[in-house]
């Protein structure tokens, strides 16, 4: 199974507070296990490494990243999984493309 991740929180179209700490978290999985998950808070222009729980058998691995929004408006959060073999979740045009969630910062 190719690497894949999905953001669980914040939910799509959630309203988050400006300059308040927000936990971005979700699940990642792959046949080889997940080595890292990168999270973008600017629509994929830049990425930061999330904390990833260790693999336990064939279970999904939880990832999380603390984020403090600095600008009001719409933000696009993206998660990209990288498996232990080095393959990364593709950006677009395939079944396991990078997952993106739109949130509103007020």
UniProtKB/TrEMBL annotation:
SUPFAM superfamilies, alphabetized: E set domains
Limits of the Moybdenum cofactor oxidoreductase dimerisation domain: 4-97
Pfam families assigned: Mo-co_dimer
Name the UniProt record assigns to this protein: Ig-like domain-containing protein
Organism: Sinorhizobium garamanticum
Lineage of producing organism: Bacteria, Pseudomonadati, Pseudomonadota, Alphaproteobacteria, Hyphomicrobiales
